[in-house]
């Protein structure tokens, strides 16, 4: 297929040079930091944010904990599905990395030989961010913010066009939202079954919420909560 954005007159390429040009003016240590953040750091931050969201939902033990957990489990699953969907897209578009087509870019990461469209990093982070937003808006906003930062880093590093990033954002968002009803319908009963288990119920709801307790213990917890409320 014809390669996208090969001409320097293309706004996509102009924006690439503008953003990547910041790397040329930045100190060496800052570029190395951006390389780590864009390649690994933000992905790790997204994973930690998902774990934090899980811990927060589990600790509070809301009435809809099972459905919230189902949405939270769907976030990483959706990211994996989106990456798989991207495999044929990359093979169909066959867009080379920008540094193979355009001269003068400051490439911070070497060894990138696969196709450029769409960005896996942008796809994964946005899928996780939108998935988090479905589960919890506060964590979701933070996740989407990290995804936007990831997209900027990929262009700054000279390994993706801006439209590679936008395409990744669109792909990750589409997979999460389009398949969310089906995924939630399948995962919610599973989470409810886990919640009711005396052994692994803590995964969905903390012990303070009464999961995994025998009836007498559950009544004791409820009595204590009433005493505290009084």
UniProtKB/TrEMBL annotation:
- Entries under InterPro entries matching the protein: PAP2/HPO (IPR000326), PAP2/HPO_sf (IPR036938)
Instruction: Spell out where the chain crosses the membrane.
Output: 40-57, 69-89, 115-134, 141-159, 165-187
Q: Highest taxon of the source?
A: Bacteria
Instruction: Tell me the ranges covered by the Phosphatidic acid phosphatase type 2/haloperoxidase domain, including all copies.
Output: 72-180
Query: Is Zinc included in the keywords of this UniProt record?
Result: no
Keyword Transmembrane helix belongs to the record: yes
* Membrane topology field: Multi-pass membrane protein
Q: Which UniProt keywords apply?
A: Cell membrane, Hydrolase, Membrane, Transmembrane, Transmembrane helix
Question: Where does this one sit in the cell?
Answer: Cell membrane
Name of a matching Pfam family: PAP2
Q: PANTHER family per the record? A: DECAPRENYLPHOSPHORYL-5-PHOSPHORIBOSE PHOSPHATASE RV3807C-RELATED, SPHINGOSINE-1-PHOSPHATE PHOSPHOHYDROLASE
Recorded protein name is Phosphatase PAP2 family protein
What is the originating organism of this protein? Streptomyces hyaluromycini
